[in-house]
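Help needed: design a sequence for this.
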């Protein structure tokens, strides 16, 4: 019994000490695990009592001890949400009554699908004729295009409507081509081809601009090829009387190519017509070796080669030839003004080929 009393006193002392410590270090121990409390039962067994951990709310209150915190603000009472008004039915907006933008006026143009047209003079003695009827200045009125000749003044007059242009010292009016060379200009073009001598053609572009009949550029022999493409043919005296052509376009009758293409020979020209082509100087026979370029490399055509010219450069300083066996070669050409002749490898061309022919 005495032993029990002593143990009880000891426990009371321990509890009082623990209470003092817990009130002094309240803020500190809240984060520590409290030691389990042991109680000895009457039968001598010891019961261990474990403290239930304090709630987070209590812990928070304890931590705030001694700390200056602002007074807690009352929680705002949530306002009752006002009912969302039903959206009003959308009133259809009437279409804006804007003035309709006038579409850009489409420039008037006559039926250009009727062009090109070509008139070829067949009887040079006729001085009055109708070449074309066409609205050449897009004013809705058709003009008559005709011509007349003044043999006393050696002048050809081209008449368009109530206006005319004169070609003085003109040997012969040969043909006219009515064509639209530029879709941007409100007029069509008349190409007047005059033969000033024997097959020396000059083509002049004529059109009606701002009510006036005006002359434009001049070129040599402009004609409509079989495929309807406009080409210009030019003459040359290189390797005889030859001509070549290239495509022209626009009102300036310009070309994209620097080369004039000559007539290409067919297999028949090398077989059936071979002899006559040699006699006419179409197939040339070389009397000496000719320095040239083949596929960009320096080469030499042997003496006795038969060839013909396939192209000549607009500078008249370079020609392309094709040999009888199909080789394509470029030959440099010079002009000797003292001898009025072209030279090849320093020799007059008639010393290089033995059958050069001239037509006039
Ligand atoms: Ca007109
Ligand atoms: Ca035009």
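Sure. Designed sequence:
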């Amino acid at each position: 019994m005495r032993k029990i009393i002593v143990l009880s006193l000891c426990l009371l002392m321990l509890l009082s000490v623990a209470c003092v410590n817990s009130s002094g270090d309240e803020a500190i121990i809240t984060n520590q695990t409290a030691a389990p409390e042991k109680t000895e039962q009457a039968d001598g067994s010891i019961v261990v009592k474990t403290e239930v951990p304090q709630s987070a709310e209590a812990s928070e209150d304890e931590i705030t001890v001694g700390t200056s915190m602002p007074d807690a603000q009352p929680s705002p009472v949530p306002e009752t949400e006002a009912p969302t008004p039903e959206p009003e039915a959308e009133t259809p907006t009437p279409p804006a009554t804007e003035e309709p933008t006038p579409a850009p006026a489409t420039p008037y143009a006559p039926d250009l699908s009727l062009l090109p047209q070509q008139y070829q003079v067949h009887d040079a003695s006729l001085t009055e004729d109708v070449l074309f009827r066409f609205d050449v200045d897009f004013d809705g009125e058709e003009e008559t295009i005709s011509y007349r000749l003044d043999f006393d003044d050696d002048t050809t007059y081209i008449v368009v409507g109530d206006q005319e242009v004169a070609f003085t010292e003109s040997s012969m009016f040969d043909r006219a081509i009515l064509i639209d060379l530029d879709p941007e200009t409100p007029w069509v073009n008349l190409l007047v081809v005059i033969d000033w001598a024997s097959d020396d053609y000059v083509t002049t572009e004529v059109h009606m601009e701002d009510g006036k009949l005006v002359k434009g550029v001049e070129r040599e022999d402009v004609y409509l090829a079989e495929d309807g493409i406009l080409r210009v043919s030019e003459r040359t005296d290189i390797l005889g009387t030859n001509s070549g052509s290239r495509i022209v376009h626009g009102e300036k009758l310009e070309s994209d190519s620097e080369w004039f293409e000559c007539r290409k020979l067919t297999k028949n020209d090398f077989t059936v017509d071979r002899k006559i082509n040699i006699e006419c100087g179409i197939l040339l026979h070389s009397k000496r070796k000719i320095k040239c370029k083949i596929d960009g490399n320096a080469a030499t055509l042997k003496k006795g080669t038969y060839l013909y010219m396939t192209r000549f450069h607009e500078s008249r300083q370079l020609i392309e030839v094709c040999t009888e066996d199909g080789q394509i070669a470029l030959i440099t050409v010079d002009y000797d003004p003292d001898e009025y002749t072209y030279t090849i490898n320093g020799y007059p061309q008639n010393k290089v080929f033995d059958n050069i022919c001239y037509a006039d």
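The pocket of calcium ion (ligand 1) is lined by residues 135-137, 139, 141, 143 (CB under 6 Å).
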